[in-house]
Amino acid sequence: MKGPAMDGLRTLDPALQREPAGAPRARWRRLASPPVFHHWAGRALPWFAALAAVLAAAGLFVGFVVAPTDHQQGEVYRIIFIHVPAAWMSMFIYLVAALHAGLGLVFHTRLSPLMARALAPTGALFTVIALWTGMAWGKPTWGTWWVWDARLTSELILLFLYLGYLGLVSAIDDPRRADRAGAILLLAGVVNVPIIYFSVQWWSTLHQGASISFTAAPTMARTMVLGLLLMALACWAYSVAAALARVRCLIAERDALGRRA
Amino acid sequence: MSQAGAHLLFIVAAYVVPVLLLGAEIWQLVRRSRRQPRRELADEA
Questions:
Q1: What CA–CA distance (Å, rounded) separates B45 from B39?
Q2: Contact assignment for A74 to B41 by CB distance below 8 Å
Q3: Residue A37 forms part of a structural domain
């Protein structure tokens, strides 16, 4: 972005006025500037949405048509093609939101808390999906909808952390105070993510171990792993698209709030 | 109900709820973005 339009944004954003336009730091600052990011997000959003749709279609095709029936669980194992990616995304989004919240808290960047706010509802949604699909898989395989097992309980705590964060930031009127309080809550909750991930190793749980390990060869058929990875990428692309759409709304809303003040 | 029929029911239930939830999120995001005041400067850029 160059020329008169960029000059306009430099006028709009005081952070951009302090540094020469060509400096590398200024380039990063420019991308992290809410007006510039608003524009960039608007252009990237349809691509991520289309990518999510294509990957989801491919993942579901591989998962339901190509992947073989499991010899122990039968057809019901196909729930993992939504359950595992949703569980991964619930943890990954939390870490990314906490990272943004931390950056906002330490460096006082204006975009970071907005990114944390934009990511949290989608993270909460994936947590609900992971819990629900886990229950729908647990009933026919374990014979029960729910057990107070370490993995399930820590995932439920993750949902409460998301809901607590969303409730907290919406309960405080001053956006900066709300961002700070929300960031502290998100950062404090980070400790729960390794507990979720390693719970199946640390405690004797009913929940099975990791579906895919970075250090060991996959124990399931290659087409099952392919379906799982395609669906995980689809969920990732969807999360990016949803976060970009939401952060655009948040930037415009905060801008309107600033104009009114 | 046969075991295969019961499993099919669980698979449908497992996939329908996420589709509804994600659909609701998309609908809410579309509505919210349509309500936004236009950011003339940023959009021109």
A1: 10
A2: no
A3: no
Residue A12 has pLDDT above 80, yes or no: no
Whether residue A15 is contained in a domain is answered as no
Instruction: For residue A201, tell me if it sits in a domain.
Output: yes
Contacts of A139 in chain B (CB under 8 A): 10
Q: What is the pTM of this model?
A: 0.87
Does A29 fall in a domain? Answer: no
Chain centroid offset of residue A195 CA = 18
Distance CA A94, CA A72 (A): 33
- Least reliable range by pLDDT among A109-113, A184-188, B21-25: A109-113
Nearest neighbour of B11 by CB, restricted to A8, A79, A238: A79
Task: Give the one of A36, A122, A136 whose C-beta lies nearest to B14's C-beta.
Answer: A136
Whether residue A137 has pLDDT greater than 80: yes
Contact B14 A82 (CB under 8 A): yes
Are the C-beta atoms of residues A37 and A47 closer than 8 Å to each other?
no
| Total domain count, chain A | 1
The residue extents of the domains of chain B are 3-44
Instruction: Tell me if chain A has a CB within 8 Å of the CB of B16.
Output: no
pLDDT tens digit sequence for A200-232: 888 887 787 776 666 666 678 899 999 999 999
CA A153 to chain centre: 20
